[in-house]
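Exercise 7. Predict the joint structure of the components listed below.
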Amino acid sequence: MKTIRQEFSVPFSYSVEFTENLFDPSNKLFAETVNPEHSGLKPNVLFVFDSGMYSCHPGLMNDITRYSNENNGSFSLVPEPVIIPGGERAKNDPGHVELIIDAIESADLDRHSYVAVIGGGAVTDTAGYAAAIAHRGIRLIRIPTTVLAQNDAAVGVKNGVNAYGKKNFLGTFTPPVAVLNDFSFLNTLSDRQWRAGISEAVKVALIKDRAFFEELEKNADALKLRDKDAMQSLIYRCAELHLEHISNSGDPFERGSSRPLDFGHWVAHKLEQLTDYRLLHGEAVAIGIVLDTIYSQLKGLISEEDCTRVIDLFRNCGFSLYVPELESNLEDPSDKQSVLHGLQEFREHLGGELTIMLLDRIGRGVEVHEVDLPLYRKAIDMLRSSEKELV
Amino acid sequence: MKTIRQEFSVPFSYSVEFTENLFDPSNKLFAETVNPEHSGLKPNVLFVFDSGMYSCHPGLMNDITRYSNENNGSFSLVPEPVIIPGGERAKNDPGHVELIIDAIESADLDRHSYVAVIGGGAVTDTAGYAAAIAHRGIRLIRIPTTVLAQNDAAVGVKNGVNAYGKKNFLGTFTPPVAVLNDFSFLNTLSDRQWRAGISEAVKVALIKDRAFFEELEKNADALKLRDKDAMQSLIYRCAELHLEHISNSGDPFERGSSRPLDFGHWVAHKLEQLTDYRLLHGEAVAIGIVLDTIYSQLKGLISEEDCTRVIDLFRNCGFSLYVPELESNLEDPSDKQSVLHGLQEFREHLGGELTIMLLDRIGRGVEVHEVDLPLYRKAIDMLRSSEKELV
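Solution:
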């Protein structure tokens, strides 16, 4: 009997919006997003809050309730939000996904209902995963509240939680219905959170956009001093570059072995785990980028001068670029305590050939399929020495 | 700041193959499927078995091991298969998904590795779900072993498990890499399993293909007597119609409110639950189809003569078309013990407007958005009377 060949394409589309004071009753963005046709069938909306965000905005659920009342007819609010811890803890405890799924079930949400998640990237990842698997997909609105979530983690197509000590071991590729970036949430971020999100912008500038890198160099002081305009401009361009990559890469759901947007991330993921998530994701990414940049220079790719510019940019923004975990069990890449074991874990997540992004020059990445471990050890050594000189 | 609009399409393709003796070393289909390019990087393959199937084929793992050895170089076999119970029990216990995820993790499977699941539709659904969420998607090969799985459950794009007493509450839309229909597994099916799968063929014939319905009428005796050719022809055409619908519907991932392939299924899902899964899915679907057909006739859609043909076809194939659970709490559609509560549960799964498929005539369905409950009670009454006359 003849083979039956099944072929079809599924179109995905969503908007990334930029606003302030999203739940001011006069701001119609949220109401228009959940009910663009002003349908009389009001969709149910369940909110998921990041507890860190919520502690800085204790009046938020009242604001949302007032917003819902004053935009009467656009949606039906589930009265109780689900509250889960912010940061990587959100993704480490399977109980958080269960909490959200329980609430989806209790509220009788269906595929035309919404989960609206407000928080950092770990919380948007967790809620996105829960929404993706309930009824094979509840509609998701991400309202990211950190720099890193607004410019990277919450604008893309992935969700996930950690399991077996492995980052994002469980998850799906499920685009959201919309991303609503509300800049007013940035005001209450700690200095560490404010800064940490800058590293994803440096990353994408380094591999894709030299002019953006130069803008970041120019704005480094302003960014450090929490200048809002500089940060909004950074977030916009960084989000735009990430989104362009996803739609233009030809592989939005990562079936191949290449993950260019994960420049610096094999080190970063491993360091987050080795430091028991003491490092914020963006802080670990900064170290990962710098290490892969020094390695690129040792491999004869990027120039020494450009390498120094990368390190200086991070320092000018206030990053620390060394943690002692970089050197634990460095001699044995098969040891899970060694940062070099991160190479294997990175390959394993996608499978296929090891594929690491390095820098050819500022603004252009280059993929390689093998690494020189002694040279990585040298790069770590150089990084430690140069950071010690600073102190 | 200007909205960033994200748009892209994701192409999906897979083959549905028909074969016998898949793990005979001379049959190259499986080896070609997991490693079409004869790559030296042998992909890992983890098998998941339906315990019901495995008890009928106790030598299967040995056969697979021999197959793997004799097709040396095409894949790397994970030595221990995961074995989970067949039937709806597979989907009711969250422990089964965990077992499979544990095995995926232990075997270090990645996105270029395969989960190959051999069993009935409930087991292919459970393993498909586990594979879909691990690393955001391990490649899945379905090797369905029942009529119902070969012609319907395992050829499409869905997976899922039950939760909160709700059918398929957790799941994703994730197409497989391939479906390998091995007819030799049908020989060991019980008569009930053999028969149950026929109802999905009747379903798709009724809503889409009058000529296929007439072929089923002609073959009813042969099907009842377990004629292999008649059954292979039924499976092929039924799978083909399901696949055509998925690729031509314009909504393969069911974002709208319409589920034409779920003709008869609102009753079926509810009856499976009310009978505590004593009914096989296909047995419940037969009752659901007949009930919606009688209702269609009472609504003045399908003719009385055609309605009788539908009932006769099921009877000629050996189906029983009545269970006492049809009449429990029939007066109160808001009671979860009432089969009429199934309407609400059916709507809830997709959300949006209630959309039920009825029959305009044999070969053509018609969607309606409201139902006449007293008329459904009358249809149930008629079904009971007509079945009692038979005894």
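Discussion. The two ends of chain A are 74 Å apart (CA to CA).
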